[in-house]
Amino acid sequence: MFWSLLPLAVAAPALAGVFEFAPAPQTDLNRVYRIDRSTGEVGACQFQLKEGGVGVTICFPSGEGAGPQPAGEYTLMPSRHEREGGIFRVNMRTGEMSICYVFDDKTVCTPQSK
User: Fold this and answer.
1) Strand partners, 36
2) Measured on CA atoms in the order 46, 44, 113, 104, is the torsion positive or negative?
3) Averaged pLDDT, groups of 10, the chain, 114 residues long
4) Where are the domains of the chain?
5) What's the pTM value of the predicted model, to 2 decimals?
6) The predicted structure's pLDDT at residue 13
7) What is the SS3 assignment for 76?
8) Strands (E), 6-105
9) ∠6-7-12 over CA atoms, to 5°?
10) Rounded to whole angstroms, what are the CA distances from 57 to 31, 51, 110?
């Protein structure tokens, strides 16, 4: 019976992950943004040196406007502005956009607009 199921397992396509990641466009900032592609929830993490140690990963959870949004097909779109620490959250179904950035140890986003 196992052998009869093997072609199905081999033929099944790999499913894409729920999250997408993109770096902040700012060239001297080691921050990476994360988005849940179906809910639009955004967060960010960055590396921070630790004196006498390896360093630590600092993460900034979703704050105002960065939490789950209406169901959609979301992606992250960095600008080409080398001094921009934020990133655009884009709903590919509606064309709405907002800018997300770190503020007071939280990831925040402006209201969506188009």
Assistant:
1) 19
2) negative
3) 47 64 92 96 94 90 97 93 89 96 97 94
4) 16-109
5) 0.80
6) 47
7) strand
8) 19-23, 31-36, 42-48, 56-60, 74-77, 87-91, 97-103
9) 105
10) 10, 14, 25
